[in-house]
Amino acid sequence: MGPSLLQLCAVGKNMTISAIRRRVSPRHGKGGHWKAGDEGAPPGAMAPSPPSPQASGTQRAAAEEVAEYLDDFEQEAAEDGADDAGPALPVELEEVAAVPIVPDAQSLGATARTVDEESSHGAEAHEEAYADDFEELEDEPPSPVAPSAAGCRRCAEEQALSEVQRWSGGEGGEEKAEEKAEETLLESVGSDGGLLRRAGPPWQVIHWAELEVGALLAQGAMGAVHAARWNGQSVAAKTLHDTSANQLVATEQELLMHASLKHPCIVALHGANLEPPSCCIVMERCEYSLFDRLHRQSRDIDRRKMVQIASQVSEAMAFMHSHSPPLVHRDLKSQNVLLTTSEDAKLCDFGLVNIKVVSAGTPNYMAPELFLSKPYSTSVDVYAFGVLLNEMFAREVPWDGYKPLEIKDKVVEGGRPRIMTSTPSIATSLIRSSWDGDATKRPTFESVILSLQDLEDSLPLGIAGLGINATDDALDALLR
């Protein structure tokens, strides 16, 4: 939860909490400002306090302007003989001081470069941005959108009064309220005068100094991932290259989503620290990505294990889609499926879940409705799964060698990656239905899980399934 409106007003004007409290206290049944000497004023009533000596010049000037505004209003009211008839003072927050507003979670997200925007950069830009014909479209950090000042004004007095009454009741209530207000205000104001969230993040704050950092595992444009140990367990620690305010907001939103997703088939988030300069994210340690396993390792993959990996990915996706409203991953691909030492699958990367730009994503896995910027649903994840499942059986990068706009044209026209003739018939049927051009004809992940179970049951057990050691001859196996 962000700072209360009471604290927001106090920060914006740099007034003491008692001054804000008197600002909203009822006078003769109407909102007004208590002043020493007013008829019916409570004991100890006094004018607004001057700005704190620690305040910045801008804050002090803003506070003095507010005090002058209050005094002018009361003087005019007294001259008009309307001492008890004045309405609540309509102090305009944005007119008196520039108040940094904490953006709400729903308005945040990252905007991404769309496929259409790529067309303006020419062939050279395409070759540079997609050197391996597989790079994800880069996301740009969000532009925070502040709640309207009108919305703040509408409920400011009501919420401020409620907080004051909460802490001012009982013996010594005034002092307790003042102490509590100052305490929470200090918690809510950063050294630069900006507002910070009072409630801590839904993850443990882990500082880089707490980690035993090991080898570099991966490095990209956004950050680097190291092997590390924390609290006696192996973890993956990611550092951020870009620690600008906008990028940290985008990272925080992704972490908020990640922290809410607890499932055996989703990479666990242990903690993070988003305070520069030592920003880091600490997650469950995996060995490599499914992309690496398929395309950078020559070892064969047992088909039964392959189906088990696909089933675990489907379970993670079914879990996301079971939320209300459903959570659409929007970037399901082999690079975002990590494998443990036992090659169990873990889903990661939730940066596109709340993205409003329809055509953001990785072109190699995007459904036609995303390319066309049409309304979409959870079925776009099913489409991506169909491409992924075919990639697993074919062990070919989908649309390898094609540029994003070429992929777009082919997909919109009904083209799909080729299916190998060696692919089991049940898998072939599932792949075709998952990437159907008609989104309404694609199965749900609950149905996908059942189809994968049928596929696994149809596969021969093989040597491992029969419990035969590959070094034994046939006679040894029969005599066991």
From TrEMBL:
**Record keywords: Ion transport included?**
no
Domain Protein kinase stretches: 211-459
Q: Which Gene3D superfamilies match?
A: Phosphorylase Kinase, domain 1 (3.30.200.20), Transferase(Phosphotransferase) domain 1 (1.10.510.10)
Classification via SUPFAM superfamilies: Protein kinase-like (PK-like)
Q: Where, by residue number, does the polypeptide cross the bilayer?
A: none
Question: This chain belongs to which protein, by name?
Answer: Protein kinase domain-containing protein
Record-linked Pfam families: PK_Tyr_Ser-Thr
List UniProt keywords, sorted A-Z: ATP-binding, Nucleotide-binding
MF terms from GO for this chain are: ATP binding; protein serine/threonine kinase activity
Under the heading InterPro entries, the entry gives: Kinase-like_dom_sf (IPR011009), Prot_kinase_dom (IPR000719), Ser-Thr/Tyr_kinase_cat_dom (IPR001245), Ser/Thr_kinase_AS (IPR008271), Ser/Thr_Kinases-Pseudokinases (IPR051681)
**From start to end residue, where is composition biased (Basic and acidic residues)?**
173-183
Q: Does the keyword Transmembrane helix apply?
A: no
| Location of the region described as Disordered in the Swiss-Prot/TrEMBL record | 23-64, 133-152, 163-183
Comp. bias (Basic residues): 23-33
